[in-house]
Every structure is written in structure tokens, then in C-alpha cells.
Design a protein that fits this description.
CATH class of the domain at 66-137: Mainly Alpha
Helix content: 40-55%
Order of helices and strands: EEEHEEHHHHHHHHH
Distance between the termini: 47 Å
CATH topology of the domain at 66-137: DNA polymerase, domain 1
Oligomer: single chain
Low-confidence stretches: 139-146
């Protein structure tokens, strides 16, 4: 099993990224929440990974945080949820917002995620209810995945999702206001200013 990758970010074309680890390029699929927090191409990066082995392929999935990877793995255990839907959920809603949905048994934010219908959302509420406590309490030692600037972008993304903005719009807004020295609050303020015209 490949637990994480640490190397140089060689390419990023959502949903695929490539990490060069000592001359070996690892091609991974990642949720948009991870893409928003990635540094520039050529920079060093550390990503958590999940290797899925099937008869016809080996697929490697990458995540910016351990919480995202744990949620991805837990989602795969839900009937009718495969890697594509799990990545879609992580792309469309933050881990914290997902936990709140499950605890409140509110399917509406989940139904707004592309690829998640009402039946799937209701199944998630039922099957994930008991796992939320496990997810919240689990943890693993790992080197820091992203720097302060990337963490601020990631937190700003989660906040904008919670405010009801669509993932595609959030990506555009955060690219427009990108600044390595900006705090989370500053990024959110600038993004809202751009969104408001």
C-alpha cells in the first residue's frame, strides 16, 4: 500500500495530477478540494494516497489532508458509491460540512453535489451516521502536506462552499484573488468582493 507521496508536482490537469518522486511519475486522481490547495508546478508537495487495485487497473487517489482520505475510504464502503462519486462529494463539499450534514441528517447540501441524487444522499445519511464519530476521532502521523498559503486557500474554499457557492465558481474566484501572503479571511473577503462585482 502507498500511504503518501512526497516529491515534485510535475503536472495538474483536474482530476489528474502527477508527482515526480525521485524520477518516477505517480499519476493520481484527486478531488477539487485538493487541487485548490496545490502549489505551483515544480514545487514540492506531500499528498496522502489511496491505492485501489481492480482486475483491469491500479488507480491511485491523492488527498491534501488525512481527513479527506479517511472520508474517501469511508464513502467507498457505502453501497452504490464508487471512487467517482466519492471524489465528487469531496469536490463539492468540505469534510466539515459533510459531517454537519450527517449529524443533522440533512440531505439537501449532498443533493446539490453533482452525481449525488436524493436516494444516494439518503443512503449516505443512514450508512455514515455511525462512522462520523470514527472519522472525527481518527488520526495518523504524517508530514505536513501543504504550506500556510495552500492551507489558507483550502480553508477559504471550504468556507465558500458553506456559503453556497458552486465548486467551479469557487475555483475561479480563488484563482482571481490568489496571494501567497493572504490569510484565509483575506481570501474570503476578496473572493466575495469579486463575486459581488
Amino acid at each position: 500500500m502507498i500511504g503518501w507521496l512526497r516529491g515534485r508536482l510535475a503536472a495538474k490537469h483536474p482530476p489528474v495530477l502527477v508527482v515526480d518522486v525521485n524520477g518516477v511519475g505517480y499519476e493520481c486522481e484527486a478531488p477539487m478540494s485538493t487541487f485548490y490547495a496545490l502549489p505551483q508546478i515544480g514545487a514540492d508537495v506531500t499528498l496522502r494516497t489511496h491505492l485501489m487495485v481492480r482486475e483491469d487497473a491500479h488507480a491511485l487517489y491523492a488527498f491534501g489532508t488525512d481527513e479527506e482520505r479517511r472520508l474517501f475510504r469511508s464513502l467507498l464502503k457505502v453501497g452504490g458509491v464508487g471512487p467517482k462519486i466519492a471524489l465528487g462529494i469531496l469536490s463539492g463539499i468540505s469534510v466539515d460540512a459533510f459531517m454537519i450534514c450527517i449529524e443533522a441528517q440533512n440531505p439537501d447540501p449532498l443533493v446539490r453535489v453533482p452525481g449525488v441524487g436524493r436516494k444516494t444522499a439518503e443512503r449516505l445519511l443512514i450508512e455514515m451516521r455511525d462512522r462520523v464519530k470514527e472519522l472525527a476521532g481518527a488520526g495518523a502521523a504524517l508530514p505536513p502536506a501543504i504550506g500556510r498559503a495552500a492551507a489558507a486557500q483550502h480553508e477559504a474554499y471550504s468556507a465558500l462552499v458553506a456559503l453556497g457557492y458552486r465548486p467551479v465558481e469557487i475555483t475561479r474566484l480563488l484563482r482571481t484573488v490568489a496571494d501567497e501572503d493572504a490569510s484565509t479571511e483575506e481570501l474570503i473577503r476578496r473572493a466575495l468582493k469579486v463575486a459581488g462585482g
